[in-house]
Specification:
The structure holds 2 protein chains of 2 kinds. By secondary structure, chain A is of the alpha/beta class. In chain A, 33% of the residues lie in helices and 26% in strands. In chain A, strands 6-7-8-4-9-10 form a 6-stranded mixed sheet, with helices on both faces. In chain A, strands 1, 2, 3 and 5 form a 4-stranded antiparallel sheet that branches. Classes of the chains: A alpha/beta, B mainly alpha. Chain B: Pfam families: ABC2_membrane_2.
Chain lengths: 296, 273
C-alpha cells in the first residue's frame, strides 16, 4: 500500500475542514479526489505531504510518516497553479529540482521533452503561459519516477490536447507502479482516466468507489426526451402526465426500472410522437448526487 | 551539502538575473569612490598612512551600507517564496529547512562579499595610488573586510527571520527598513540622549558599554576603530566608548551571525506554506 489514510481529521478553530477521512491508494492505482472548492482536497493533500499535521487519525506514506525523509524521497507533488521563479529558465528551474533530489542534471532536457517544453527550455519562466508552467510542474514531478504522485488540480489551465498528453504520461507512470492521487472538481475529466473516485463534501468522505459502482449506487432517474408532432406537445404531455419543455419537446423523468414501461406508453401514442431520446444521468449528476450527501 | 549548494547556486543565479549583484556592487563602489575622493584632502594627522584613514572612513560607511544591502537582499527570501507559491513545492522535496535557508544564506553572503570586496578594493587602489605608505594600512583593510562580512551575515540572518515572520514581501520590506532605522540610526541617537540625560551616572558607566556591544553595528564600529591607527577619526559615540575592550566587540561580532541565523531558522521552521 503506497498511501493509507485513516480517520484523518483537521480543524481550524471550530471549523472542521476534514472529518474522519480514510482511504487507501495502492501501487499503480489512479485515484481521483473530487470535491467543490473548500471541500478539503488541498488540505488533505498538504497533510499527506507533511506540510501540515492532522489533528487526529493516521497517515502512512510509503510505510512512513508524512514529511519523513522516506516519504519525501518517494513522493512527488504538483501544486495547484504551479509557480516558479520568473527569472529562471525552464531548464535552470528543472536542474535546480534535480539537484535538490540528488539526481543528475543531464535529465533536465529529456524531462522537458517528455512534457513538450523542449523548445521553450531556455526561455525564462516569466514568459511562459499558465499551461507551460503547469508542464514544468509536471516535469519536476516526474523526476526519478516517484512511488507516490500527488497532483492538485493538475489539468487546470491545460488545453484539451495537453490534457490528453498529460493523462497519457500518468498512465505510463501508473503502469510502472506509481500510485497516483489527483484532485479535480470535474468528474467528466477524470472518468476514463482513474481507477477509483473519492468524493469529499465539506470535509466528509461521501464516496470511495469505482465510477461504475457509483453510477449503480446513485440510481439516478433517467430522462426521456420526446419530440412531439407539430402542435401536439400539449396533448402528448397530458397523455403521459409529463411536463412540456417547449413547443415540440416533452420531458419525462423515470427510474431506471420504469424505463421500458414508459417507453411502451410513448410508443402507444403512435403518430403523435416523432422521436424519443433516452438521456442517462450525466457524470455531473452523479457527482452532485454524492457531493450533496446523497451517498452518505 | 550538495543540496545546500544547489539552493545557493540557484539563488545566486536569480540575484544575477534580477541585477541584485550589479546593484549591490555599484552601491558599494560608488560610495567608496566618493569617500576616497573626500578623503584625498590632506589629513594633517602625522604618521598615519592614507589607507588607514580610508579604512576609518569606510568603517563609518559600512555601518550604514552593509546592513542595508544585507537586509535588501534577504527580506524577500522567504516571504517572496510564500507569495509566489514556490515554497510549498520545495518543502515537499527531501531537503531540510535548515539546508534550504543555508543555501540562500551562502548565496547572499557571497554576493555581499563580492560587493564589499569591489568597494573596498577600489578605495584601497585609490589610496595606494596617492600614498606609497598606504601598504601599512592593508591589515586594517583586511580586518574591515572580514568584519563587514560578519556584519552582513548578521543582517542577512535577521532579514530572513523578518521575512519568515512577515510572510508577505511588502510587510517584510517595511519591517527590515524599520529595523535598519532603529538599529543603525536611532539606536545611537537614543544612547547619546540617555548619556546626556544621565550626566555621567550609573547608566553611562554600567549599562551603556553593554548596550553598545549588544548592537552588532556598534560592535563592528568599535572593533574596527579601536584596533586601527586612525582612532583620531573616530567620532560621536565611539569616541565615548573608547574604554570598551576591543575583544568584547570582537566577541559580539562573532556571536551575532550565529544568533541571527538561528533566529532565522527557528522562525522559518514555524512557517506553513
Amino acid at each position: 500500500m503506497c498511501l493509507t489514510l485513516s480517520q484523518v481529521t483537521k480543524r481550524y478553530g471550530n471549523h472542521t475542514v476534514l472529518d474522519a477521512v480514510g482511504f487507501d491508494v495502492r501501487a499503480g492505482e489512479r485515484v481521483a479526489l473530487l470535491g467543490h472548492n473548500g471541500a478539503g482536497k488541498s488540505t488533505l493533500m498538504k497533510i499527506i505531504l507533511g506540510l501540515i499535521p492532522a489533528d487526529l487519525g493516521s497517515v502512512s506514506v510509503l510505510g512512513a510518516a508524512p514529511g519523513s525523509q522516506t516519504a519525501r524521497t518517494g513522493t512527488a507533488y504538483l501544486p495547484e497553479n504551479a509557480a516558479f521563479h520568473p527569472a529562471l529558465t525552464g531548464q535552470e528551474q528543472l536542474c535546480h529540482y534535480l539537484r535538490l533530489r540528488g539526481a543528475s542534471t543531464s535529465q533536465a532536457m529529456p524531462l522537458l521533452e517528455r512534457v513538450g517544453l523542449e523548445t521553450a527550455a531556455r526561455r525564462r519562466i516569466g514568459t511562459y503561459s499558465k499551461g507551460m508552467r503547469q508542464r514544468v510542474g509536471l516535469a519536476q514531478a516526474l523526476i526519478g519516477t516517484p512511488r507516490l504522485l500527488v497532483l492538485d488540480e493538475p489539468t487546470s489551465g491545460l488545453d484539451p490536447v495537453s490534457r490528453r498528453e498529460f493523462y497519457t504520461i500518468l498512465d505510463e507512470l501508473a503502469a510502472q507502479g506509481t500510485a497516483i492521487l489527483l484532485s479535480s472538481h470535474a468528474l467528466t475529466e477524470v472518468e476514463a482516466r482513474t481507477d477509483r473516485i473519492v468524493i469529499l463534501s465539506s470535509g466528509v468522505m461521501v464516496a470511495n468507489d469505482t465510477l461504475a459502482n457509483l453510477r449503480r449506487r446513485a440510481s439516478l432517474p433517467i430522462r426521456l426526451q420526446i419530440s412531439a408532432q407539430n402542435g401536439k406537445a400539449d396533448e402528448v404531455a397530458r397523455k403521459l402526465s409529463a411536463g412540456r419543455r417547449n413547443g415540440v419537446m416533452v420531458d419525462l423523468v423515470c427510474r431506471s426500472d420504469e424505463k421500458l414501461a414508459r417507453l411502451g406508453d410513448i410508443s402507444a401514442l403512435g403518430s403523435l410522437v416523432d422521436d424519443v431520446d433516452i438521456i442517462p444521468p450525466s457524470l455531473e449528476d452523479i457527482y452532485s448526487h454524492f457531493s450533496k450527501g446523497g451517498g452518505a | 551539502m550538495n543540496r545546500i549548494l544547489a539552493s545557493a547556486r540557484t539563488e545566486f543565479f536569480i540575484a544575477l538575473r534580477n541585477r541584485w549583484i550589479t546593484i549591490a556592487v555599484a552601491m558599494m563602489v560608488l560610495f567608496s569612490l566618493v569617500l576616497s575622493a573626500a578623503g584625498s584632502a590632506p589629513t594633517g594627522a602625522l604618521g598615519v598612512d592614507k589607507l588607514s584613514v580610508t579604512v576609518a572612513s569606510l568603517t563609518s560607511l559600512a555601518v550604514y551600507l552593509v546592513p542595508l544591502v544585507a537586509l535588501l537582499m534577504s527580506f524577500d527570501a522567504i516571504a517572496g517564496e510564500i507569495e509566489r507559491g514556490t515554497l510549498s513545492l520545495v518543502l515537499t522535496y527531501p531537503v531540510s529547512r535548515a539546508a534550504l535557508i543555508l543555501g540562500k544564506f551562502t548565496a547572499h553572503l557571497a554576493i555581499l562579499a563580492i560587493a564589499v570586496a569591489a568597494g573596498y578594493g577600489i578605495a584601497a587602489i585609490a589610496a595606494m595610488a596617492a600614498d606609497p605608505d598606504a601598504i601599512r594600512g592593508v591589515p586594517a583593510l583586511l580586518r574591515l573586510f572580514w568584519t563587514s562580512i560578519l556584519l552582513g551575515a548578521t543582517f542577512i540572518g535577521i532579514g530572513y527571520g523578518l521575512s519568515a515572520f512577515a510572510r508577505r514581501p511588502g510587510a517584510a520590506a517595511g519591517l527590515v527598513i524599520g529595523l535598519w532605522l532603529v538599529l543603525i540610526v536611532l539606536y545611537d541617537l537614543g544612547l547619546l540622549a540617555a548619556i546626556v540625560a544621565d550626566d555621567g551616572g550609573k547608566f553611562t558607566t554600567d549599562y551603556f558599554p553593554w548596550l553598545l556591544l549588544g548592537n552588532p553595528a556598534d560592535a563592528f564600529r568599535i572593533y574596527n576603530l579601536a584596533v586601527s591607527d586612525a582612532t583620531a577619526a573616530a567620532t560621536g559615540l565611539t569616541g565615548a566608548a573608547n574604554s570598551i575592550p576591543p575583544v568584547l566587540a570582537l566577541i559580539s561580532i562573532l556571536v551575532w551571525p550565529i544568533v541571527a541565523t538561528t533566529i532565522a531558522w527557528l522562525t522559518f521552521r514555524k512557517v506553513t506554506p
